[in-house]
Amino acid sequence: MMILENEQATLDAGRKLGKLLRAGDKIALRGTLGAGKTTLARGMLEGLGYSEEVPSPTFAIVQPYEPPDTRIPVAHVDLYRIDDPEEIPELGLEEVLVDGAMIVEWPDRMPDGFWNDALNLELEITVEGNRRLTWTAGNAWNNRWPLT
Ligand SMILES: Nc1ncnc2c1ncn2[C@@H]1O[C@H](COP(=O)(O)OP(=O)(O)O)[C@@H](O)[C@H]1O
Ligand SMILES: [Mg+2]
Question: Where are the domains positioned within the chain?
Fold first, then answer.
């Protein structure tokens, strides 16, 4: 468990995580609207070397990033607007993992089991108005998470 005191702390945690990402990584970001999922993803993209404004993928659903803009290919995904599981294969997410990583908001639209080997992060808004970050991590994350 980690308490993120303000937006900057969320960005910093994301930035450190972004530096550790490698091809095949799945990051699931859970939490209510406004919990800070996109903020954390912005930090990760910064840590991956992206220096432009990071849009929320709410409308695009999949926002792809490629070298040289990022160190490795990354798909920033928001499945909020997916309400039929049949739409998921069309997004081409499996291909991303061959040489890149995915960062996914509203990950529970994916089939059961998809996130077993992922870094599953959950953000909650505390009564004080900061954020509580909790997680479960697959074996791929041994020695990488939690951040030291
Ligand atoms: N640790 C934090 N403490 C307080 N506010 C935060 C923190 N992290 C992010 N925020 C704020 O939360 C708001 C919603 O963030 P956003 O990343 O868009 O949420 P989500 O993608 O989960 O809907 C933003 O205004 C952001 O500045
Ligand atoms: Mg968001």
Answer: 23-110
Residue 147: predicted pLDDT: 87
Mean pLDDT, range 83-112, rounded to an integer? 94
- Tell me the residue ranges of DSSP E strands in 1-148: 2-4, 26-30, 62-65, 74-78, 101-105, 119-125, 131-137
Which residue's alpha carbon is at the smallest distance from atom 1 of ligand 1?
A: 6
Q: In this structure, are residues 114 and 46 in contact, taking their beta carbons and an 8 Å threshold?
A: no
pLDDT, tens only, 29-51: 999 999 999 999 999 999 999 99
Q: Which residues line ligand 1 (CB under 6 A)?
A: 4, 6-7, 9-10, 31, 33-39, 105, 129-131
Ligand nearest to the CA of 33: 1
- Expressed in angstroms and rounded, the spacing between residue 22 Cα and the centre of ligand 2 is 22
Check whether domain 23-110 has CATH 3.40.50.11890, yes or no: no
